[in-house]
Amino acid sequence: MGDGYQQRRHAHPAQAQHHQGLALHRPARVAHRAVSPKLMDYELRLYATAEYLERRGTPTTLEGLREHYLNYYIDTALTADKLDDATSLFPPMRRSVSSTSIAVQFAATMNHAGLGLLPVFLSEQYPTLAPVLHDQFSYTSEYWLVGREEALRNKAVHATVRALNDAAANGNWFIPPFDC
């Protein structure tokens, strides 16, 4: 990094943080001058706990989802059309917990609040989650890395990008269990 970068960094700390940032996004509009390589495709599938399924019954068809609660994104807060499209094959469902955070959706599902439409790479690590209608429904979406070129020259950001790319290429995601 040249002296000009160092001067900018010390002149305005918030601006320096912006230059060192990296975001993980689903398909959406990308900022002007951003670099945005695709990280990976991933699958969304329905999951629930055994306790929830014992209490509400296990749906055997997509139409049967009508009688169940869904933990998913807030409809009005969705900025990625693909995530909105993911539920287009479902009948109208009541929402149990709606959040912009996948961690909140996951916690709600783990705490028996409904069916979660969750990433397979996250859910398969938790034996307490039972697959629901996996023979009838799967939805593929994408994650993209988004950052400005100058941010990608930062050693820490570059190392993070390399680790994410390695994990995506090898399918080697280890996400420690959430404490639900």
In words, what does this structure look like?
The chain is α+β, with helices and mostly antiparallel strands and about 180 residues long. The chain folds into two domains: about 5-40 and about 140-170, no CATH class; about 45-140, D-Maltodextrin-Binding Protein, domain 2, CATH 3.40.190.10. It is built from eight helices and eight strands, in the order ααβββαβαβαβαββαα. Strands 1, 2, 3, 4, 5, 6, 7 and 8 form an eight-stranded mixed β-sheet that branches. The protein is elongated and about 50 Å long. The protein starts with a helix and ends in a 10-residue tail after the last helix. The relative contact order is 0.24. Mean pLDDT is about 80; it is low at about 1-20.
What does this entry show, briefly?
By secondary structure, this protein is an alpha+beta fold.
Keywords summarizing the entry:
8 helices; D-Maltodextrin-Binding Protein, domain 2; 2 domains; alpha+beta; single chain; 8-stranded mixed beta sheet; 180 residues; 25% strand
**How many domains in all?**
2
Secondary-structure class: alpha+beta
Q: What low-confidence regions span 5 or more consecutive residues with pLDDT below 50?
A: 1-20
Tally of individual helices: 8
CATH-assigned fold name of the largest domain: D-Maltodextrin-Binding Protein, domain 2
Order of helices and strands: HHEEEHEHEHEHEEHH
Distance from first to last alpha carbon: 43 Å
Q: Report the helical percentage.
A: 25-40%
| CATH class categorisation of the largest domain | Alpha Beta
What value does the average pLDDT take?
79
